[in-house]
Amino acid sequence: MPQRTKPKSKPKPKPHHKPSSITAHKPTITTTTTTTTKPLIIPKNWPSNITYLSQPIYSPHLTLTELSSLVSTTPPPSSHPTSSRPTQSQPTPTPTPTPSPTIRILPITTPPTHPALHEHGLYTTRALSPGTHILDYTGYIHSSRREDTDPQSDYDLSLDRELGIGIDAGRMGNEGRFVNDYRGVRAGGPNAEFRDGWVFVREGGRGGRWERRVGVWVLGGRGRRGVGIGRGEEVVVSYGKGFWRERQVEVEEMSQASETR
Asked: Which ranges of 121-194 would DSSP assign to H, the alpha helix?
């Protein structure tokens, strides 16, 4: 999986997330607010204790420098030097619809060896060709400052490593928080990946702005190999070996702590 803003920040689906002290606020800077008149539709199987978002929420603790790296009124650059993830070379004209029409959240009941058995995953509603933009990973966009992070979150994805900015979907987000790792699920490896990119967000009749996002894309496209994702298949990515190494360390630390009690 991609870079993280802190050791415990890889997205890992869980049915219930431990509440944190983070309070969500819309940004006070006008260039980061969004005007919308459409009623918000909640996707089926969405957990009642998690806030569903159609747009990211920006932390009030973000500085002007940090915000300027995320939001732009002019066409953005086509690369992200602060990320090791693949970059979508062409900006996306508009965000994907919410809820996404191409995927749905389903409880995982089979196979019995699935690492997230009895939790939830993302499954396609139609066949998706290589290079398809499935949806953006949405959540609470925050800095790395102590008062702005949730150390218990397993859904915190790095947005800008150099500035320490992350997207935390632990307490609020969209369907992207249910993307599972391919290990133990798909023998052929992941069928999707996270990509950095920009989307154009309209603001009523006043034009709009460009926002930096991390999207979930079907592997392949742009001259890269990929076979697409069939209808009804689970969308899975790679969390990365680093995530699993850190998770193993956490397990060992918890085991040692329980032995000393």
From this structure: none
* Position with higher pLDDT, 23 vs 65: 65
Pick the most confident of 69-78, 83-92, 142-151, 247-256: 142-151
Name the percent of the chain lying above pLDDT 70: 70
Q: If DSSP states are collapsed to H, E and C, what string results for the chain?
A: CCCCCCCCCCCCCCCCCCCCCCCCCCCCCHHHCCCCCCCCCCCCCCCCCCEECCCCEECCCCCHHHHHCCEECCCCCCCCCCCCCCECCCCECCCCCCCCCCEEEEECCCCCCCCCCCCEEEEECCCECCCCEEEECCCEEECCCHHHCCCCCCCEEEEECCCCEEEECCCEECHHHHCEECCCCCCCCCCEEEEEEEEEEECCCCCEEEEEEEEEEECCECCECCCCECCCCECEECCCHHHHHHHHHHHHHHHHHHHCC
For residue 77, the model assigns a pLDDT of 66
pTM of the model: 0.76
CB 19, CB 261: distance < 8 Å: no
How far apart are alpha carbons 106 and 129 in whole angstroms?
21
Torsion of CA 215, 216, 221, 224, to 10 degrees: 100
The Cβ-side half-sphere exposure at 174, using a 13 Å CA radius, reads: 26
Could you give the 3-state DSSP secondary structure of residue 67?
helix
- Bridge partners (DSSP) of residue 198 are 212
* Residues 229/235, Cβ–Cβ less than 8 Å: yes
Radius of gyration of the chain (CA): 18
